[in-house]
Amino acid sequence: MNVTPEFERDLKHLMARKRIRQKSEAIRLAVREAARRGTSSSYDYRAWLGLALKGPLNPRPKFRNEDQLWS
């Protein structure tokens, strides 16, 4: 199986996080989780909370505060 460097990196992170020693077991787990997510009808967006706060702030904002924004 040929994999990209990004896949290899993500697989190593998964192995460390789940304390898995064998790549084959980590791949089976990743495929199992992806299949489970693909068949479920509900989505969990909790991991997205606070994501926008991690981005860079605008150095020249159009509005300095909320009062200017809504006036």
Describe this structure in words.
By secondary structure, the chain is an all-alpha fold. The protein has a domain at 1-38. The protein is 51% helix and 0% strand. The chain has three helices and no strands. Helix 1 crosses helix 2 (23-39). It is elongated, with a radius of gyration of 20 Å. The model has no long low-confidence stretch (mean pLDDT 87).
Features:
single chain, mainly alpha, 0% strand, elongated
Task: Give a count of the beta strands, DSSP E runs of length 2 or more.
Answer: 0
Supply the helix-strand structural class.
mainly alpha
Secondary structure: helix percent: 40-55%
- SS summary, helix count: 3
Gyration radius, to the nearest Å?
20 Å
